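Checked the freezer inventory, then went back to the computational side. Two predictions to log before the end of the day. The first one is the construct we discussed on Monday; recording sequence and tokens without edits.
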Amino acid sequence: MRHVRRHAGSLAAVVAFSAALTGTAQASPAGPVDLGTLPGDDISSVLAVNDAGVMAGLSSAGANPRRDLLVRWDAGGGITALPTPGGNAGQVRDINENGVSAGYVLTATDAVPTRWDAQGQATTLQVPPGFHNATAWAISDTDVVVGSWLTPGNQYHGFRWDPDGQATDLGTLPGETWSMAEDISADGRIIVGSAQRAGANHAVRWVDGGPITELAPQSWSSGASRINALGVAAGTMKETTSGLTIPATWDSGGVLNRLDWPSSQPVWLSQIGPTGYVVGYGYLNPPTLSAVRWNPDGDLSVLPDDGLGADVQGVDADGTAVGTFQRRATVWSPAGERTQLGVLPGGTRSEAYRITGSGRVVGTATTATGKTHAVYWTLR
């Protein structure tokens, strides 16, 4: 693995490579398929999808106030409402490969972590006395749920919720007061998140039920809120208060790999794929945001955008990236070819958020009446 950033002189080479790939792919993706809404609703969105194509998200109505209902779509697009014990709103934040999803339910006074099994039946976490406002963010393929809650002293701490119902407070760095657990590896062994140290945010992880440890202990600040199935985490760090933003990954052993970023301007990471491809966006040529992709070795390529800017949100095992270009959901092939995906009849806009291993791209598109619906496209 490489551990040395390339200097800013490599920017010209990166941009030249990007320009050489400008153009559109010859593939003809199918879709979009309109996933619709529950009866009486007019807006929907997918918040999570697994490789089997099972999706979870929201069906909504109204604007001010807006009412959101939790829903699940099977792989064929059939929609059903999910139960919300003790409340009538919330969010589903993640779904694993077994079709078990996790999120939270909003009651009249609190947020309660909730797990929905593959049939949609709900189980709520029995939050320990004094703990409150607990939200679940991710679930492993072993059904371990992670999230954050407020302690009796009103400090945020990460928590782990095991399938047997046991909930564990994940604690903080020594002498500090807060932490957040944000993602978990597929096997449930590695949890990543952030914690406070010396007044700054720092990337942390918990391994095999062990104590909290820092991923970049020599940095001034850092963050790692994304992890792939193999336990490789992705995030950014700064070595000094006024230092450059450095994109990075940490392998399952916690070893740092600095990703190429030949710019003094900020960069943000969107997702790390199953094999280690990373996508994000940043200011290579301000004021335009560039959509970028790193291969597993950390080498950077700029996704073609004709100099107009683009947004990238998801990437698969082969490096196929998805996002939005010129108000249209867009796919960039591993070779960099760009394909804009279709829109709904009478609609004018679409966005892509995630791509599954089977080639399903999920996102949203506008209808002829201007409403936003959850949709998917099929690439293969």
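The second is the one RB wanted added to the comparison set:
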Amino acid sequence: MILPRSTAVYDNTNDDHEDTARDQSSQPPADGAAPGAASGPASGSGERSESAGQELDKGAVSEQDTSIPAPLETPAAPRKLASTARTRGHLMLALSRVRIATATQLAVLVTNNGVGVGYTLRGLRDLRALGFVDYGQHGREKVWHLTTAGQRAVAEGGDVIVRPHAATGERAIAAGLAPHGLAVTDVITRWGGPILDWEVEVDHTIDKVRRVVSDAVLYRPGRGAEVEFLEMDRFTMSISRLALKLRAYEAYSQATYFEGERGTIGSTKWLWRERYRDSTVFPVVRLVLAGTEDCDALDRRAKLLQQRIHGIRLRVDVAPLPRLQRQPYKQWRWREIGQSDAQVQTRTA
């Protein structure tokens, strides 16, 4: 299914008649029988098996009647699904874009203003029963991710392109990297717009030994570029390491390749334009600072970083996450610590 690009969120609130019908059908019958109970005679009628309570004599060998072949075990039938196909489809597409998320974050992405947490949990439980999603623990919170089968199902749907050998998020959670991934997801959920415009952990190869991996890429045209790069800093890296990451983006913006057959007059082209062909300017790097609620401390960190990357030929915008969380996306204010658009445009022209 193709999700509407004009709608930032999906309305799946309590007026969903299909969900209501499923809820009513899943209620137990009036006589108290459990749903899905067998229609045959119950084994708990009060009668006890003749062998009940009997014990084998010490040293006795248990005999087995082999004259009648043992019946094959029949796998238990899956429980009745309690969510709509629409909800399950939106959840799988959202997880394919952000990789890991909590139920509350997914509710923001797939329901109206995040009010459908109950619908979200219901859909996640159904998807887990079907083998398409699973979760890991981060503290007391469940962190959801697609399984390999879930990734394959999303790829077969054709709505998004799933990269070959893309990680499911399970190993990231097990390795203790959930806080970073959830912080990236939090920014994405607050950014707004169609979730299908996002992709996380995008590898940009510079040469045989260098590359830069973006925490997330927003495929939404603006200011002459068709994408924006998102980086998350949770105060876990030193200023030097953070500056090196931004310098890697600068190296990617300057990398070139030669196009033409050997022995002919070819041309030198920008490497990044081979991937982002519709861009006339190198994309901006949006750096979100987190790890503390003290915005003043994050502002000081941004100032130190600006001094460290002085002269960088790249546009870099920075903002503290706590400040972004208190404002709607249209009111977000970014601080430029690199080049301006005019300077970047002149260099890449």
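For RB: The first strand starts at residue 133 and ends at 138. The radius of gyration is 27 Å. Let me know if you want it refolded.
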